Model the fold of this input.
Amino acid sequence: MTIRPCTAADLPALLALFYHAVHTACAPYYTPAQLSAWATEEPDTARWAEKLRQETFLKAEEDGVLLGFGALDGAYLDLLYVRPDAQGRGVGGVLCDFLERRCTGETVTVHASRAARDFFTHRGYRLVRPQQVALRGQTLENFVMEKELI
Done:
């Protein structure tokens, strides 16, 4: 597995992986309407392109196949998604290790989905609070979690 920075050319593959990961791996935890609000069929590519320019985006590849990606915005772990057929192989952990090392603060924060909460708990993140997030007419629960890095 290779970890590399993402470029603008990666955006279509990132968006496809994001949609597939949300609608597959998160399906046991959220309703179809919530999943569609979270990962729309027609993503806001301009917003994603801007995030790609402003945040630290890394991807994991194997034999040219995108396995996962993550993004860090200063001390906030903004995104971490792994292909459903690659989950359980350590991809998310490796990406998270690389992103945590680039964190600009002593503490890294994440808003973990129901599907990802245990993953972050096992990595040493502690629950700060659950929260309800309004998104495209739906309310989704996630968890503000943080980890001391020093």
